[in-house]
Amino acid sequence: MRSVRSARESQFEVVYRECLRDVKTYACSHVGRGDADDVVSATFMSVWQRLDEVPWPSRRAWVLGVCRNHCRNRWRTDRRFAALVDEITTVRPPSAGEPGGADTDVTSAVALLLPLLSVDDRELLVLTAWLELTPAEIAEVLGVPAGRVRVRLHRLRGVLGQHLGDVEKGGLA
């Protein structure tokens, strides 16, 4: 059976095809390749939701303005998260005397590594290392299966181990 496309879907497809390359380029240049796909998705979700507001003659510029707003939201989110991480490391860094705590050198090394990690890895590190949540608790917070959290923790430990090894050798990779 053949589905009939609505005028709205056709209009969105025109905007999408016309602007996708520009939106990807803009997003990559402003938030990096790691976050660009999220920004592109959010941009076109907004376009779909506000399709009736798109000024047809200047649609390309309008869509890039929406993308710019999503890039700025990403920057704000990253800054807020970095500030939270800074506050947590300042207020309550784990110490050698605490159960599960680390020595000062490791804490300092991890603090140096935080900016190098993705937003998701930083969140996972804060949840597990500073807030001392179990994988099951982290899964509940993130709304994902506990098995996925365990896999992500395993990968994060590998990344941290590699970077901490580089710190011990005298620099960051």
Description:
- The protein has seven helices and no strands.
- It is mostly helical and 173 residues long.
- The protein folds into two domains: 70 residues; 77 residues, Winged helix-like DNA-binding domain superfamily/Winged helix DNA-binding domain (Arc Repressor Mutant, subunit A).
- It is elongated.
Structural class of the helices, strands and pairings? Answer: mainly alpha
Number of strands: 0
C-alpha termini separation = 56 Å
Mean pLDDT: 82
Looking at this structure, what is the CATH superfamily of the largest domain? Winged helix-like DNA-binding domain superfamily/Winged helix DNA-binding domain
Order of helices and strands: HHHHHHH
| Number of domain modules | 2
Assign the CATH class of the largest domain: Mainly Alpha
Provide key terms for this protein.
mainly alpha; 2 domains; Arc Repressor Mutant, subunit A
List the helices and strands and how they pair.
Elements: H1 7-31, H2 33-49, H3 59-91, H4 104-113, H5 119-130, H6 135-142, H7 146-168
Helix pairs in contact: 1-2, 1-3, 2-3, 3-5, 4-7, 6-7
Write a brief structural summary:
The longest helix has about 35 residues, at about 60-90.
